[in-house]
Design a protein that fits this description.
CATH superfamily: Spore Coat Polysaccharide Biosynthesis Protein SpsA, Chain A
Number of helices: 6
Order of helices and strands: EEEHEHHEHEEEEHEH
CATH topology: Spore Coat Polysaccharide Biosynthesis Protein SpsA, Chain A
Distance between the termini: 29 Å
Number of strands: 10
Radius of gyration: 19 Å
């Protein structure tokens, strides 16, 4: 079944300025996502959706295609991934490209591995009634036992009803791993909801997951990347 990869990469990131181009272990962050997508042999095309000419130039130099520039209205601080993907799929369709699956791969996913991308594709193909398959991981501690701060700064239980429940008696909860989303092209265009019964999980080990939004996230990702390389769990 035909498939394309779409890598969203806007130029105006705020918490880590220019993070898509920032060097991560000597390589622009987005370059590894492009390289992994190309090397996976899963996609007919690897597309970068960006509003930024510098990102576009680097993407082309690394072998990706940038057949359109993303409108400014879809490159602000509030537009979500689903809207960016819907725009990309619709734009490519209008240009005559025909593909059944479109996989969103985040530009800031240095721990992503090809085997999980392949697993997501295969999982979606095995379940024709589903719209999406994407990476998740289990929370390291039951979310029902989470703590928060009240208006005075004192600790309190976020879910008081579980205050006395043993952690081993609580069901596991999962978080979006922030690496990739396989989706049927029609599902992106329809606006099917990602976090719903229409989606299937690709469960990743927690030590292979690090979302990157802050400087602390970036540092932790670098530590994990170095450890995984040293341990032979990740290809450079």
């Amino acid at each position: 079944m035909s498939a394309i990869a779409i890598i969203p990469a806007r130029g105006g990131s705020k918490r880590i300025p220019r993070k898509n181009l920032k060097l991560f272990h000597g390589e622009p962050m987005i370059a590894r996502s492009i390289r992994l997508a190309l090397d996976s042999a899963l996609f007919e095309q690897v597309i970068v959706s960006t509003d930024d000419e510098e990102i576009a130039a680097l993407a082309r130099a690394r072998g990706a295609q940038v057949p359109f520039m993303r409108p400014a209205a879809l490159a602000d601080d509030f537009t979500g991934t689903a809207a960016v993907m819907a725009h990309a799929v619709a734009t490519l369709r209008q240009a005559g490209d025909d593909f059944a699956l479109a996989c969103c791969i985040y530009a800031t996913a240095p721990l992503l591995q090809k085997r999980f991308l392949r697993q997501g594709r295969d999982l979606l193909l095995e379940h024709p009634d589903k719209s999406f398959a994407f990476s998740v991981c289990e929370f390291g501690f039951p979310v029902q036992r989470a703590l928060t701060l009240d208006e005075t700064g004192a600790l309190t239980a976020l879910y008081p009803e579980y205050r006395l429940t043993r952690s081993q008696d609580l069901p596991p909860a999962f978080q979006d791993a922030g690496q990739f989303y396989w989706g049927r092209s029609e599902a992106w265009l329809r606006g099917d909801v990602l976090y719903s019964e229409k989606s299937l999980p690709v469960v990743l080990p927690r030590h292979l997951v690090q979302d990157i939004d802050t400087d602390e996230d970036w540092r932790r990702a670098e530590y994990l990347y170095s450890a995984l390389l040293a341990g032979g769990e990740l290809q450079a």
